[in-house]
């Protein structure tokens, strides 16, 4: 039975009856064990969203403990955001459904955090960048008048087009749309290609934000299975034949979160299938410059002949996330359409960020090489630490990027992620990268931090893991 606000009427829930034997479970003080028992009831759904807990004095009497013990336990639950106390209403449970913005995986796991954050995959700061600056003269020199240009400054669009042309893909300025990062680029592309309620095919697992974007247009996600080399051609064929998606989203370059890089042979096989079905593709190359062995080519945009390939790129991972500069590339008629889709939400990218980007573009290869070396070292140190300190976890060295995909011997890493947060370290459960959010044994750990932060964060994860496995209720996966 689940006790919710609707079935508990206006009175407080009988907590004592829901946590029998609580004092004999777990370790630590009575207050800690009580908090743990109530927390389990909330996270399991036994104690539902919105129910009112008994007053401290009543709960203490029912459990035969002191009121101060109850107060300490409730303080811990309040600090974890599991309950709130309201004047005149008492202490109210805030269950998972109330704490998470519906459909928003980014908001759930990548918001503000005061501890060690190994969840968000962005450069921690801009200290690795060369010295560049802009002034009022630069703003005037753009020749863009009021500065509102939905497709972006001509100079930056030209720089992006030139960079693609230098790689062998002839690109004109009218084939480039500057966006506020790759997330917006993908969002605009999907809204340009997919009607509300349509079908979006995507890798599973995949970039967590793609599922937020899909939810935003009420899309049905058709997951395509992948292996260590990328999308499985036979499964892509099946999905395109059975689900007939309006568009496929996929990453080339290091995969977030799996860490593999799709090789030329596999890409050619995928391109043949996509051409045969004429299925448009959004090719996300945001992490392509962060492959530890150097950028891999060709890409789908170089291989597909009959279908439309829309490119999505960004400076966020190579340069700095706070710059908020990305881009869409594709046929000129698609770029024109995407402009009007974008105008439904904002009027164009910020000019100062674009000017900084223009000055950074000539240094991009140097910046990317430095970032690759830093990330490869960080990933290697993290993999070595996990293998040494947590030998029952399984992790492989990624081919690039900043994320480790770690298999943990537990059927659901969700509760462990919450326990880790109480140890002062944030990571994301693997379910955040799955289309159906089904719990599983994976963690998504970002190592794009200083070595000291990563080392300490992994140490705290180890402490949390030892606490979990030492509890009487632990069941190995």
Characterise this structure.
The chain is an alpha/beta fold and 477 residues long. The strands form five sheets. A seven-stranded mixed beta sheet has the order 4-12-11-10-9-5-6, with helices on both faces. It has a three-stranded antiparallel beta sheet with strand order 13-16-15, with no helix packed on it. The chain folds into three domains: 15-98, Winged helix-like DNA-binding domain superfamily/Winged helix DNA-binding domain (Arc Repressor Mutant, subunit A, Orthogonal Bundle); 103-126 and 366-470, Aspartate Aminotransferase, domain 1 (Alpha-Beta Complex), CATH 3.90.1150.10; 136-363, 3-Layer(aba) Sandwich (Aspartate Aminotransferase, domain 2), CATH 3.40.640. Helix 12 links the parallel strand 9 (247-251) and strand 10. 41% of the residues lie in helices and 13% in strands.
Main pleated-sheet profile: 7 strands, mixed
Number of domains: 3
What's the shape? Answer: elongated
Separation, N- and C-terminal Cα atoms: 26 Å
Features:
single chain, Arc Repressor Mutant, subunit A, 18 helices, Aspartate Aminotransferase, domain 1, 477 residues, three-stranded antiparallel beta sheet, Aspartate Aminotransferase, domain 2, seven-stranded mixed beta sheet, 3 domains, disordered N terminus, alpha/beta
């Amino acid at each position: 039975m689940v006790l919710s606000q609707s079935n508990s009427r206006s009175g407080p829930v009988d907590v004592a009856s829901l946590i029998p034997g609580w004092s004999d479970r777990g370790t630590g003080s009575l207050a800690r064990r009580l908090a743990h028992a109530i927390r389990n009831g909330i996270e399991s759904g036994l104690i539902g969203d919105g129910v009112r807990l008994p007053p401290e004095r009543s709960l203490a009497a029912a459990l035969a403990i002191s009121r101060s013990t109850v107060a300490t336990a409730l303080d811990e639950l309040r600090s974890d955001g599991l309950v709130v106390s309201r004047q005149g209403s008492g202490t109210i449970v805030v269950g998972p459904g109330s704490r998470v913005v519906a459909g928003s995986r980014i908001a759930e796991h990548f918001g503000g955090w005061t501890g060690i954050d190994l969840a968000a995959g962005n450069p921690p700061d801009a200290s690795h960048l060369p010295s560049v600056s802009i002034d009022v003269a630069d703003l005037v020199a753009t020749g863009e008048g009021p500065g509102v240009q939905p497709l972006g400054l001509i100079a930056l669009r030209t720089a992006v087009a030139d960079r693609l042309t230098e790689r062998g893909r002839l690109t004109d300025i009218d084939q480039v749309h500057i966006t506020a990062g790759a997330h917006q680029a993908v969002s605009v592309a999907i809204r340009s290609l997919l009607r509300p309620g349509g079908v979006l095919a995507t890798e599973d697992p995949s970039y967590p934000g793609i599922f937020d974007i899909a939810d935003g247009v009420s899309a049905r996600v058709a997951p395509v299975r992948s292996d260590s080399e990328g999308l499985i051609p036979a499964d892509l064929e099946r999905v395109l034949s059975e689900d007939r998606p309006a568009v496929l989203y996929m990453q080339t370059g290091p995969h977030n979160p799996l860490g593999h890089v799709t090789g030329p042979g596999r890409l050619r096989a995928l391109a043949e299938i996509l051409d045969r079905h004429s299925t448009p593709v959004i090719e996300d190359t945001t992490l392509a410059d962060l492959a530890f062995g150097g950028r891999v080519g060709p890409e789908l945009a170089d291989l597909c002949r009959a279908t439309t390939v829309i490119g999505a790129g960004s400076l966020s991972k190579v340069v700095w996330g706070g710059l908020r500069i990305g881009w869409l590339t594709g046929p000129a008629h698609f770029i024109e359409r995407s402009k009007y889709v974008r105008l439904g939400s904002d009027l164009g990218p910020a000019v100062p960020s674009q000017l900084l980007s223009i000055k950074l573009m000539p240094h991009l290869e140097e910046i990317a090489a430095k970032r690759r070396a830093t990330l490869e070292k960080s990933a290697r140190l993290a993999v070595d630490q996990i293998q040494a300190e947590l030998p029952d976890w399984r992790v492989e060295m990624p081919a690039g990027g900043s994320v480790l995909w770690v298999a943990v011997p537990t059927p659901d890493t969700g509760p462990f992620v919450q326990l880790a947060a109480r140890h002062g370290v944030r990571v994301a459960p693997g379910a955040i990268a799955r289309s159906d959010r089904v719990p599983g044994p994976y963690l998504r750990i970002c190592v794009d931090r200083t070595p000291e932060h990563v080392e300490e964060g992994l140490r705290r994860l180890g402490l949390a893991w030892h606490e979990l496995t030492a509890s009487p209720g632990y069941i190995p996966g």
